[in-house]
Amino acid sequence: MLSWHSGFVSFDAMFSLIPILLLTVFLLNIMYYLLHDAVESIEAQERFNKLVLVADYIVKRGGAYEENKVIYPNLIDPGKLSGLEAELGSKVHMDLFIGLESEGGIPNTDKECIYRIVVNHNSGEIDRLFVCG
Amino acid sequence: MQTLEAIISFTVFMAFASYVLLQIDDNRGIDNSLYRYQLANDVWRVLYLRGNFKDLSSTSSKIDNDISKIVDRTGFCIYLRGQWATAPSDRGKACKAKDEPFVTVRHVLLIDGNPSLSTLSIYEREK
Q1: Coil, strand, or helix at residue B114?
Q2: Which of B63, B65, B87 is nearest to B75 (CA)?
Q3: pLDDT in tens, A21-70
Q4: Inter-chain contact A52–B34, Cβ cutoff 8 Å?
Q5: How far away is chain B from the Cα of A76, in angstroms, using its nearest Cα?
Q6: Bridge-based pairing state of the strands B103-111 and B114-124
Q7: What are phi and psi of A10, to 5 degrees?
């Protein structure tokens, strides 16, 4: 009689364990998804911030036309752009592409790109400076 | 009785699961607010470098041409000093833009020797 009751208790415990396990698996999956999503989102934001930073540096200093120690922001000297990819890429740990639309066109790449509106010093025309990485 | 318990438990579980899943915000985009301001200031700076703020008379079409070039390159609608600036073919018509500006910047300009607050707004085109 006693063992018959104990069998029922075991069955009861077993059936209650199944939903607990299912619930645990569900929660773990949700947590994994949330974590993965957050990491991806932060990485994308970080990559974008780096591109914005690099583009701003080029527009205001690195690629800006300079005359008599006066720097002209947004007036880009195409000659100063060569070498910046390697120099800045190593600093932000990215494989960068930097170029003016009129000189190299829009890069055919699956990299993320941003652009800044500038004036090409050589031609004096409005141009776009692309920074991809 | 046990069926009722099971139904209640299942309902509570489904409510909890729905709540958790609804908390996942899938509209989180990249924060580009700084980049927007940079773009707006680029437009302003480029217009300045091209000498557009030397002559701000309403008959001057140079500033319109330059803004049109920027509009062509960026695909944005640019609104300066209270008048829509669009491509030459669209001049006089409002650029079909979204209601809220993408970004707005204000700068002081000297117009006929008097300082005047001028607004430059950039709008995304309506699709």
Answers
A1: strand
A2: B87
A3: 988 998 899 889 889 988 999 999 999 999 999 999 999 999 999 999 99
A4: yes
A5: 11
A6: antiparallel
A7: -65, -45
Contact across the interface for A75 and B49, Cβ inside 8 Å: yes
| Cβ–Cβ < 8 Å for A22, A56 | no
Around Cβ A116, how many Cβ atoms within 10 Å? 25
- Token duo for residue B88: 């030459």
B22 touches chain A (CB under 8 A): no
Go through chain A and tell me how many residues it has: 133
Cβ–Cβ under 8 Å, residues A81 and A54 = no
User: What are the pLDDT digits (tens) for B8-21?
Assistant: 888 888 888 788 77
A35 inside 8 A of chain B by CB: no
Taking an 8 Å cut-off on Cβ atoms, the answer to whether B38 and A30 are in contact is no
Whole-number Å distance between alpha carbons of A47 and B28: 15
Predicted ipTM of the assembly = 0.80
One-letter amino acid at B1 equals: M
Please spell the DSSP secondary structure of A10-37, one letter per residue.
Answer: HHHHHHHHHHHHHHHHHHHHHHHHHHHH
Residue A28 to residue A32: CA distance in whole angstroms: 6
In whole angstroms, give the CA distance from residue A76 to residue B48.
Answer: 14
Q: Under a CB-based contact definition with an 8 Å cutoff, are residues B126 and B96 in contact?
A: yes
Q: Is the CB of A72 less than 8 angstroms away from the CB of B43? A: no
- CB-based contact A133:A47 (threshold 8 Å): yes
**Is some CB atom of chain A closer than 8 A to the CB atom of B67?**
no
